[in-house]
Design goal:
Layout: H1 2-17, E1 20-25, E2 29-37, H2 39-42, E3 74-77, E4 84-87, H3 93-96, H4 128-138, H5 145-157
């Protein structure tokens, strides 16, 4: 119990204070710009862990290169410029019909996260460690194995 609590506490510290740089997150930072954030930048709603600002983001979870074989691959063409887009989920664009909303999703609430596997809107991550590994790879955070375990323990305790 004491070891588990210590791991959760270390994970909370990582979640709230470990800086990393993000790029190409439609809805937050685009056009090659960079932004230094922590996990709590997007998951900032107190007591819930969702986003307090009602904006939709594309962190890349429906990108073709991370798609698993069990997920569909949609090919969509924007009328405005004729560009083809490939995604496992069109996201908000299904509602608005706008290409600018392709693959954008609401930041989910983290409360009770452990009970809601699989994770991400499309079930891409089967475990909390898969979630941590996705973010680590996507944003080149370079977590140590211990930091990954602690962060997963924290998310499992929410």
């Amino acid at each position: 119990p004491a070891r588990a609590r210590a791991s959760i506490a270390r994970g909370q510290e990582i979640f709230n204070t470990r800086p990393f740089v993000i790029t190409n997150v439609a809805g937050l930072v685009e056009n090659g710009d960079k932004l230094t954030v922590t996990c709590s930048t997007c998951h900032d709603a107190p007591g819930a862990g969702s986003r307090s600002i009602p904006e939709l983001l594309d962190i890349g979870i429906s990108a073709p290169q991370v798609r698993t074989p069990d997920l569909p691959l949609f090919t969509l063409q924007c009328n405005s410029d004729g560009v083809f887009h490939f995604t496992s989920d069109p996201g908000q664009a299904l509602i608005t019909g706008k290409c600018a909303d392709l693959s954008k999703f609401k930041v989910p609430t983290l409360r009770g996260l452990a009970a809601r596997a699989p994770y991400f809107h499309n079930g891409l991550a089967k475990t909390l460690m898969d979630v941590v590994n996705f973010y680590d790879a996507r944003f080149v955070i370079n977590f140590t194995p211990q930091q990954k375990a602690d962060l997963a323990a924290f998310m499992g305790a929410l």
